[in-house]
Every structure is written in structure tokens, then in C-alpha cells.
Amino acid sequence: MTNVVELKVGLHCDECIKKILKAVKKIQDIETYNVDIELNKVIVTGNVTTEEVIKAIQKSGKTATTWEGDQTNS
Fold it and tell me: In the predicted model, is pLDDT for residue 73 greater than 90?
């Protein structure tokens, strides 16, 4: 089953982004991933759970929290 996991992650510099992308790419069964630098948001789709994605990002030394209803459309 395909899930969409949206997480809030501190994307302060290129090195942070590289670490997070490297961690996300290692997750099995992902279909797509996207990083929104302006919103500090990582979106992963595939046969994954929110917990799996958070754990993978935390292994890279970064923190990730769920993206809960904070969304505003500009």
C-alpha cells in the first residue's frame, strides 16, 4: 500500500539536505521523495510508515517531526 509521509525537518544548509536525502534513499520500498527547503519539509511516498522515515532521518543525526495541519497555501 502506498503511503505519503510528510515530515518537518531542519534543512539549514546543503550538507543537512545531503544527509537527509542519503538517509531517505536507503529506505526500502519508497517510490518518490521530495524536499521543500522553504517549508523545511520532506515528503516520502511508498510502502513506508511515518516511523520508518523518522528513524532513518534520525540515524543521519537530524530530527524529524510529523507535519500536522500547519499547511497554508500561498
Answer: no
CA 31 centroid distance within chain: 13
Q: Give the full edge-to-edge strand order of the sheet including 30-36.
A: 30-36, 41-46, 3-9, 64-66
12 DSSP 8-state letter: -
CA distance 53 to 8: 11
Residue type present at position 44? V
> What's the mean pLDDT in 28-55?
94
From the number of C-beta atoms within 10 Å of its C-beta (0-12, 13-18, 19+), residue 38 rates as: exposed
Q: Please give the distance of CA 48 from its chain centroid, rounded to a whole number.
A: 11
Cβ distance 52 to 26 under 8 Å? no
Q: What is the pLDDT of residue 69?
A: 52
